[in-house]
Each structure stands twice: as structure tokens, then as C-alpha cells.
Write a structure and sequence with these properties.
Length: 365
């Protein structure tokens, strides 16, 4: 029995060691990768008072304009455009499989009906139409009329991260699981871009992910601590409504880090470098609004581009069972992701490939 326990304790270490070997070619800095003497951290109150969280910077962002002769692309639901890189799409799909579809469903996902019928007297609601079926789904634990049962943050949380980091990815997946809206601030390779410099100036560290909750003036390093914090503060108050063991693909650190690292290598270490021709003032732009979820192969291309361009973006989680799907239908009359709303130019658009082209044209020099 002692020998068995010893073996179990070694497994997570072996998984993390393999992850380090796979990431050795990058310059990433994540939880526990680097240890050094760090300067004294500023207090979070000082950070807020000095305008760290972009209230002042956003108002002074450089002006950008939508491309000349820009035409909003026609949305094409459940279609793969001819311009899609099928190899890349396949790799995105393999990454989804490697992570067992984590982030595709909210906590407590359930099917309400497979024959949903819209009533003209009621607000339109999302349903997935497949032939004779109209599937309506939701969450058995997050969909509550009592706001005290599942607390929601009044202001979006802020996460300093970059795409390829396995630690950042597991936190983003957990954010989708709890159906939270979070503002992402890309720090390519953890050491590049203004957001990384800003993080170092205020905390003395460049370690990502770093989560800041403006609702509670709370800042956290370490992905495990962030996951526990999110669950304790924005998960169901009644913990008996869900089985914590079902969270193991994320909470089992050895498995999640190893498989997320494999995904990053498969996808070519996205977000590891700031795009060379990215506008130098991209970090000063107003946060772009992106509707989607972490594991979607279509959303992934847009997320990667936003990250390499160092554009702050507010991600509105739309995993299956999310209440935000109804909000999109009420807002636009349809559901399709990715859906991008750019407050810097006034552009609103669907279609992943077209969004990437738009971002390239507007936010590069």
C-alpha cells in the first residue's frame, strides 16, 4: 500500500516533467516554471488607484477605422467555408478530442427538450435545429432564478494569459464551465507585450495566468488557486447540486497540464510570440467583445489572432447550456460563434476566417 501511494504521488510529477520537456523550446513562463528573487509587490489598492485596469488607457486609445469598402460577411451556420485551412481545422478538432471536450458544456448541462417550439408571445430562445429535432438545453445548477444561488460578478474578471500555456488554458476552460464573462489580456510567451510589462511593474512577476477580480479587489497567481477561487465565489452555493469528481479533467493537474501541453504543441504553440507587425498601441485599445468558448475549432482561430496581436478582449462564454446563447439570439436574432463586436471601429461580424482577415487589416502596420 505505501508503494502504491508513492507511485500515485509520482504520476503528476512525471506528467509535469514531460510537459516541461515539450515546452523547452519556447520562452514561456508559467506556474512553477521559473523561480527568482522578485521585487516587492505593490498593493492592489495602489494598482487600482494608478489606473492599471485600463479605465484611463481605454479612453485615450489611438483611433482605428474599419477597412475601406468593408462589407459585413454573411453568416453561414454549421458550414466550413472553402477558404478554411482544413489541416488547421483538423488539428483544432484533435485538440478538442485530446481534452475530452472540456469547455464544450457548462456545469450541470442538461437537455430540456428535443422538440422545442417557439411561441411568438415569448422572447426567442436558442435551440439547435437538426432535421425534425429542435434541441433546447440549459444547466441544472447555473440556471437559477435566485441570484444568491449562483453568484455572478458585476464586473468582468481579468485574466493575464497567453494561449499556449497549459496553466492558462485550464483556467480558461474552467471559466467556460462556470459560464463567466472574463476580459483576457494577452501576454505572449508570458514575457512579451505591454500587458506583461504592466504585470511585472505592478506585481514584480511575469507569471501567468494571473487572475484579478475587481469585484473583490482580489488578485491570484497559480492556476489551482484560481480554479478554487472561481468555484468558491462564482460556482453554485449549494455544492450538493453537482459532483466535484466530474471536474477531474481540469482539477487533476497532471492530466490537464499534460494534455493541454500536447494541444499546444499540436497547434504550433499559439500565442507564444507577439506578431511582429502588430500595432504598437494594440494594448491600449478598448477591449474587443468576443462571443464563443475555448474548445470551439472555429473560435480558436479568432482567439489565437487576438492573442498574437496583443488585443484585450472580453470573452462572453457560450458553451452548450449557457444562458448567453439566449442573450445572443435576443441581440442578433441568431446564434453562431465566433461573433465579434469591435467598439474601436463599430464593426460587428460572424465567420472566423473573415474575422481573422479583418483583425489583420485593422490592427497591423
Amino acid at each position: 500500500m505505501p508503494e502504491l501511494q508513492k507511485r500515485k504521488s509520482i504520476l503528476p510529477r512525471v506528467a509535469i516533467l514531460l510537459s516541461i520537456i515539450l515546452l523547452i523550446s519556447s520562452v514561456s513562463v508559467s506556474n512553477g516554471f521559473v523561480s527568482r528573487n522578485l521585487p516587492k509587490r505593490n498593493s492592489l489598492n495602489d494598482i487600482v488607484l494608478r489606473g492599471w485596469f485600463m479605465d484611463e488607457k481605454a479612453s485615450s486609445s489611438s483611433k482605428v477605422q474599419k477597412p475601406k469598402n468593408f462589407v459585413t460577411p454573411e453568416p453561414k451556420p454549421l458550414q466550413i467555408p472553402e477558404s478554411t485551412d482544413l489541416g488547421r481545422f483538423t488539428r483544432n478538432s484533435l485538440a478538442l478530442a485530446a481534452r475530452l471536450g472540456v469547455g464544450a458544456f457548462v456545469l450541470g448541462w442538461k437537455i430540456d427538450t428535443i422538440f422545442f417550439k417557439e411561441d411568438d408571445t415569448d422572447p426567442k430562445k436558442y435551440c439547435l435545429k437538426l432535421g425534425p429535432f429542435s434541441i433546447r438545453d440549459s444547466s441544472s445548477v447555473l440556471s437559477s432564478d435566485d441570484p444568491a444561488a449562483v453568484p455572478r460578478p458585476k464586473e468582468p474578471l481579468i485574466l493575464y494569459e497567453y494561449d499556449a500555456s497549459p496553466y492558462c488554458k485550464r483556467v480558461r476552460e474552467f471559466i467556460n464551465l462556470l459560464d463567466l464573462t472574463v476580459e483576457y489580456r494577452p501576454c505572449p510567451g508570458a514575457r512579451q507585450g505591454k500587458f506583461s510589462d504592466e504585470l511585472y511593474e505592478k506585481t514584480g512577476r511575469r507569471t501567468v495566468p494571473y487572475l484579478y477580480d475587481p469585484n473583490k479587489d482580489q488578485g491570484l497567481f497559480e492556476s489551482n488557486d484560481q480554479i478554487e477561487y472561481l468555484l468558491a465565489n462564482y460556482g453554485p452555493v449549494d455544492t450538493s447540486t453537482y459532483d466535484r469528481k466530474a471536474l477531474w479533467p481540469i482539477t487533476f493537474e497532471g492530466f490537464s497540464i499534460f494534455t493541454n501541453t500536447l494541444c499546444a504543441v499540436l497547434l504550433g504553440m499559439p500565442g507564444g510570440q507577439r506578431q511582429l507587425n502588430a500595432r504598437p498601441d494594440n494594448e491600449d485599445m478598448l477591449p474587443i467583445e468576443l462571443w464563443g468558448y475555448e474548445c470551439s475549432p472555429f473560435v480558436r482561430n479568432t482567439r489565437e489572432k487576438l492573442g498574437t496581436l496583443c488585443l484585450p478582449h472580453k470573452m462572453i462564454s457560450c458553451s452548450r447550456g449557457s444562458a448567453n446563447r439566449d442573450k445572443m439570439v435576443a441581440k442578433t436574432g441568431r446564434f453562431q460563434v465566433p461573433y465579434l463586436v469591435d467598439p474601436n471601429t463599430g464593426v460587428e461580424m460572424y465567420e472566423s476566417e473573415e474575422i481573422v482577415k479583418y483583425l489583420e487589416e485593422v490592427y497591423t502596420v
